[in-house]
C-alpha cells in the first residue's frame, strides 16, 4: 500500500515533470522575460526552484548541519540569483533538472516520523514535500503566465488547496491581525470535475469555485478580483484579500486587472 508520504513524493515528481516539459523547448530569449514578480525574470524563477530544491535535499540528508548551511553567504538570494544569471539557459535548466531529481531521491529516504528542519519551524515529511510541490507549481506558474507554454492544472492542486485552507490562521498572524472566530467553508471544483470540501459545511462564510483559481489566490498569484470565485461573508472576503499559503513576510501579491478573468460561459 502506498503511504501518504510516498503519494505526495510521487505528486511532486509529477509536478516537476510537468514544469520540465514546459521549459524544455522554451526559446533562450523567453528566459529573460520579466514575470509578474517585480524584478524577477523567468530565469530567476527557475533559479529559485534550483536553490530551494538543493537546500531541501540538504535538509533531508544532513539535518544536523542544515541551519549552518542556510546561513552560508552563497545561499543568500542575491548570491544564488547572480550565479544563475551567469549561466546559459540550457545550463540553468540542466542544473534544475539534476537538483529536482536529487530532491526526489532524498525524499524517498525520509522517515515519516522525523521532522525536517527548514528556515521556519521543522516540518513533518509530508508537510515538507507538500510545501515543495506548492513552490514548484506556483513558481512554475510565474513562468507559464508569461512564457506562452502550456502546463494544464491537474488534481495535484489538492495539495496546494489543502495548504491554502490550513494556512488561514497564518495569513492573519503573519500580518499582525486577529483571526475572526467565524469559520469559512471552502468548496472547490477540481480540474477533473471532482468537488473538494474543506471546513464546516454549515458556515455562513463561504468560498466556492475553481480549485485552480483558489490556489492562485492563496499563493498570491492572482488578485481575487481577477477570478470567478464566489466569496460570501465578510470573514471570507477578508481572508481572500490576505490569504498566503507560503511562509515568509506578507507578500504584496498581484494587483487587480493584471490578468483577464476567465469566461464562465
Describe this structure in words.
This protein has 265 residues and is α+β, with helices and mostly antiparallel strands. It contains ten helices and four strands; from the N terminus they run H-H-H-H-H-H-H-H-E-E-E-H-E-H. The chain folds into two domains: 144 residues, Four Helix Bundle (Hemerythrin (Met), subunit A); 86 residues, SCP2 sterol-binding domain (Nonspecific Lipid-transfer Protein, Chain A), CATH 3.30.1050.10. A hairpin with a 5-residue loop joins strand 1 and strand 2. Helix 2 crosses helix 4, helix 2 packs parallel to helix 5 and helix 2 runs antiparallel to helix 6. The protein is globular, with a radius of gyration of 18 Å. The N and C termini lie far apart (42 Å).
Observed structural traits:
10 helices, Nonspecific Lipid-transfer Protein, Chain A, alpha+beta, Four Helix Bundle (Hemerythrin (Met), subunit A), 4 strands, globular, 265 residues, single chain
Summarize the structure.
By secondary structure, the chain is an alpha+beta fold. It has 10 helices and 4 strands; from the N terminus they run ααααααααβββαβα.
Biggest sheet: strands side by side, in what order?
Answer: 2-1-3-4
- Helix/strand-derived class? alpha+beta
The number of E-state strands comes to: 4
| CATH level 1 class label of the largest domain | Mainly Alpha
Name of the CATH superfamily of the largest domain: dinb family like domain
Order of SSEs:
HHHHHHHHEEEHEH
Query: What kind of sheet is the major sheet?
Result: 4 strands, mixed
**Secondary-structure arrangement, i.e. CATH architecture of the largest domain:** Up-down Bundle
The residue ranges in which pLDDT falls below 50 over 5 or more consecutive positions are none
How far is the N terminus from the C terminus? 42 Å
Amino acid at each position: 500500500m502506498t503511504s501518504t508520504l510516498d503519494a505526495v513524493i510521487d505528486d511532486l515528481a509529477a509536478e516537476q515533470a510537468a514544469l520540465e516539459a514546459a521549459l524544455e523547448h522554451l526559446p533562450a530569449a523567453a528566459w529573460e522575460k520579466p514575470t509578474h514578480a517585480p524584478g524577477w525574470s523567468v530565469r530567476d524563477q527557475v533559479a529559485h526552484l534550483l536553490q530551494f530544491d538543493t537546500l531541501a535535499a540538504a535538509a533531508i540528508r544532513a539535518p544536523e548541519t542544515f541551519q549552518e548551511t542556510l546561513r552560508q553567504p552563497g545561499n543568500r538570494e542575491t548570491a544564488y540569483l547572480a550565479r544563475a544569471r551567469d549561466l546559459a539557459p540550457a545550463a540553468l535548466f540542466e542544473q534544475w533538472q539534476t537538483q529536482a531529481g536529487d530532491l526526489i531521491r532524498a525524499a524517498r529516504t525520509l522517515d515519516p516520523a522525523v521532522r525536517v528542519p527548514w528556515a521556519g519551524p521543522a516540518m513533518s515529511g509530508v508537510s515538507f514535500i507538500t510545501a515543495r510541490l506548492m513552490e514548484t507549481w506556483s513558481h512554475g506558474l510565474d513562468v507559464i503566465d508569461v512564457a506562452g507554454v502550456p502546463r494544464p492544472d491537474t488534481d495535484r492542486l489538492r495539495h496546494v488547496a489543502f495548504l491554502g485552507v490550513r494556512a488561514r490562521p497564518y495569513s492573519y498572524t503573519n500580518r499582525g491581525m486577529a483571526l475572526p472566530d467565524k469559520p469559512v467553508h471552502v468548496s472547490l471544483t477540481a480540474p477533473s470535475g471532482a468537488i473538494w470540501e474543506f471546513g464546516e459545511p454549515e458556515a455562513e462564510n463561504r468560498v466556492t469555485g475553481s480549485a485552480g483559481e483558489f490556489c492562485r489566490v492563496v499563493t498570491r498569484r492572482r488578485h481575487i478580483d481577477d477570478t470567478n470565485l464566489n466569496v460570501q461573508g465578510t470573514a471570507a472576503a477578508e481572508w481572500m484579500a490576505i490569504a498566503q499559503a507560503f511562509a515568509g513576510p506578507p507578500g504584496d501579491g498581484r494587483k487587480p486587472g493584471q490578468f483577464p478573468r476567465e469566461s464562465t460561459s
